[in-house]
Amino acid sequence: MTGATGGRLGLRAAEPAGSRQVYNFTLEELTVYLQDLGEPPYRARQIFQWLYQRRAQSFQEMTNLSKGLRASLASALTIGRAREVTRQVSKVDGTTKFLLEWPDAVTVETVLMRHDYGNSVCVSTQVGCKMGCTFCASTLGGMIRQMTAGEMVEQLLFSQRLLDEQSQRVSSVVLMGSGEPMDNYDAAMKFIDIISDEHGLNIGQRHITISTVGLVPGIVRLADEGRPITLAVSLHAPNDALRSSMMPVNRAYPIAKLMEACHYYHRVTGRRISFEYALVGGKNDSLQEARELAELLAGLPCHVNLIPVNYVPERNLTRTAKDQIYAFWNELKRLGVNATIRREMGHDIAAACGQLRAEHANRG
Fold first, then answer.
1. Do the beta carbons of residue 21 and residue 151 sit within 8 Å?
2. Section 158-173 average pLDDT
């Protein structure tokens, strides 16, 4: 059970033993860890229930464990290492954005969105991003480091503890925050395994979405693993010239290769794909581009999510006019494409991914 980063449990080799993060353990890994201490397998289930169902924040709260085991765990492991730097709450729809900081001084954002159908949390998978998309705030400053699975779990729990105050729960999760999940694939999948475990948060994998800029090997791997999660592909342009100008990743994985992978994903899994399309004024929002998009997606069961681009001070982008947004949408519908316009949430706060982090860094 050796992890990609070294060590029996896949924890970061650079971490001293006293700072190891219990949220980074799957139930299977925690079972192995406790067996090495001479404890029976059911102890791992008990700890998972304390962590994720009762939201315990210290081992001393786990009263059905012996005092000796609690002391041993507390000396070797930590429960949570992030602190909340700041929080923004939308006065319009209650969207809550947290800026969290870890002991190595890196910060990431996580967002709680409240819908009629439940509460969704957007999780960041990397500190910053190296994909270089021209409309995104996350890529400003590049990528600092990967997030561990446990750090992703911590992001989710900040929202869940807030919801606990209203007797509510997280019902869905999207890996659409800062970073490219497919560039941190193992940690992202481990995070999904942890939060979907029936002894923990028990968030069904069908209620989890992973977003990618189009890293073809990751899409193929996800298809072959057969996970029932939703795949969202950030497309944003219907042809290579335009997409390459907006998304440098297109030079490595041009649209033909990307669409081949998407068709493969659908054949293997039978699942519909979501395509994200950020509308940028005068860039990719003409009716001709809508027609090209419809032609590109013909024959592939999918859904197109149209996203009016968020204003980012560092980017010189024009937001598509409202009437043009609807014209683009109507053209797609006329051509048989299943499309919706994303409901804007938290537009009165730092809405774009990475924007709150960038603002904090500039103030510092």
1. yes
2. 97
83-363: CATH homologous superfamily? Aldolase class I (3.20.20.70)
Q: Which of 19, 183, 173 minimizes the C-alpha distance to 102?
A: 19
Residue-level pLDDT at 29? 97
Structure confidence at residue 325 (pLDDT): 96
Residue among 283, 156, 163 nearest 208 (CA): 156
Catalytic residues: 109, 353
Pairwise CA distance, residues 309 & 352, whole Å: 9
Helix, strand and coil percent figures for the chain, each rounded to 5: 40, 20, 40
Contact 160, 170 (CB under 8 A): yes
**SS3 category, 332:** helix
Any idea what DSSP says for residue 259? H
Cβ(266)–Cβ(300) below 8 Å: yes
Contacts of 89 (CB under 8 A, 6+ apart): 95, 96, 97, 349
Task: Decide whether 17-78 matches 83-363 in CATH topology.
Answer: no
3-class state of residue 262 by DSSP? helix
Average pLDDT over residues 173-194: 97
What CATH class does 17-78 carry? Answer: mainly alpha
Q: At what angle do helices 216-225 and 185-196 cross, to 10 degrees?
A: 30
Dist CA 3 CA 48 (whole Å): 21
Provide the whole-model pTM: 0.89
Q: Domain map of the chain by residue range? A: 17-78, 83-363
d(CA 10, CA 262) in angstroms, rounded, equals 30
Phi, psi of 120 (to 5 degrees): -115, 140
Task: Give the H/E segment covering residue 101.
Answer: strand 96-101
User: What are the CB-based long-range contacts (under 8 Å, 24+) for 316-319?
Assistant: 317/134, 317/135, 317/280, 317/281, 317/283, 318/280, 318/281, 318/282, 318/283, 319/280, 319/281
Interior CA angle at 232 toward 228 and 235, to 5°? 155
- The string over 292-321, giving b where at least 16 C-beta atoms fall within 10 Å of a residue's C-beta and e elsewhere, is bbbebbeeeebebbbbbbbebeebebeebe
Identify whether the C-beta of residue 119 lies closer than 8 Å to the C-beta of residue 168: yes
